[in-house]
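Before relying on records like the one below, remember that each one covers exactly one chain. Contacts with other chains, cofactors or solvent are not represented anywhere in the record.
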Amino acid sequence: MQKQRNPVTKQAASGPLMGSNSADFVELGEGSSPKLNKFQKVSILPLVFLIFYEVSGGPFGVEDSVQAAGPLLALAGFLLFPIIWSIPEALITAEMGTMFPENGGYVVWVSSALGPFWGFQQGWMKWLSGVIDNALYPVLFLDYLKSAIPALGGGMPRIIAVLLLTAALTYMNYRGLTIVGWVAILLGVFSLLPFVFMGLVAIPKIEPSRWFVVDMSSIDWGLYLNTLFWNLNYWDSISTLAGEVENPARTLPRALFYALILVVSGYFFPLLIGTGAVPLDRELWSDGYFSDIGKLVGGVWLRTWIQAASAFSNMGMFVAEMSSDSFQLLGMAEHGMLPEFFAKRSSYGTPPIGILFSASGVVLLSWLSFQEIVAAENFLYCFGMIMEFIAFIKLRIDYPTAPRPYKIPVGTTGAILMCIPPTLLILVVLALASLKIMVISLFMVALGFIIQPCLTFTDKKKWLKFSVTSDLSDFESDAAYQQYNSRS
């Protein structure tokens, strides 16, 4: 049960807080809320594959990088981009996720550093970005099945199939993170194994000279950067589940490290095999081309396996993304940013209202095209990441001695320098967006500035009940209380 907070007195940043009602508060880095102990926690192996599916899901979708820039730049991109973007984002997630080991993740970080208003804007943009991203997966799943079942190509059968698939995967999320995590492991192994076999049978056909082909005069930089960015972001999404993780101070950094190796390897080696084993025709390198390569090097059976792996990979990405989105809403409700009913849990420990809202968003957005979905979610995601970088640096400056179970081994200057390359990359991605995507995305951002005051007004009128949980971490305790108290 949530408790309304009485005024609190702020102690030293490294110590626990006590309210005037003598409620105990969790010290940073100690773990998640004791009231959640009755629900089974996520261990490291399922967590690795949840991160894998939040970020990647396998090499499906990287083919456009070869079409945009050729083999050399595609291979170099999936080695250099993780250094510029993925590693900094994963390191920041490890530090901040263990500093605030609770649901809500980046919403809590931004709220603690910049205040609850900006925390809400962060939550709105990142949730919307996640839901837009998740709208891809039922559609892509059916795209792989329509060759065998042509009726799924359009019309009412396709609409019904999207709804049924979304309902089935949503129910899986409702049944709990433990089930989702082990399903992610099974789907992950199934999705990666065909590329192991493809690598083995392709060895005699590989010509290393094909890897070094580049034509600087015919590079589509927009497609190239968007493909890299879309396939190598969302490392921070797992932070919204930190309260569900077993011993997050130890488990989260290790899981991010193992997942980083798995994701980069799962992109680079299939590209290495594919570009080296078949003659280059850049126009053929688009979504689904790996299945054609499988047929060329291994036969029809390998193509069928890769197609099946790609289809089921979309299921893994869907359940992982929905878990992150729904627990983010739960965390926001626990911090008084959303009505209290978002924080209610089912008997399986899952947030049913958050799941339903996320599923509804997926259904409503599934009419968008693939290119529009990728561009829109990248645009919104970029805004959210800028606020995360600001929050990370500000908390380093304001609370340098606060307990951080995992701390990136750099000082404040190093933290600022580490954020500069990914910030420059964000500005490039934003600049390459089309006018249509800019207008739509900025309109969605502006909605957040309207929704937050409306929620505040709703609470003041007592139309809906808001409350702040009694076991928040140190930094957000005062901000959350002030937000809640200002409504009372």
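The chain has one domain: 44-460.
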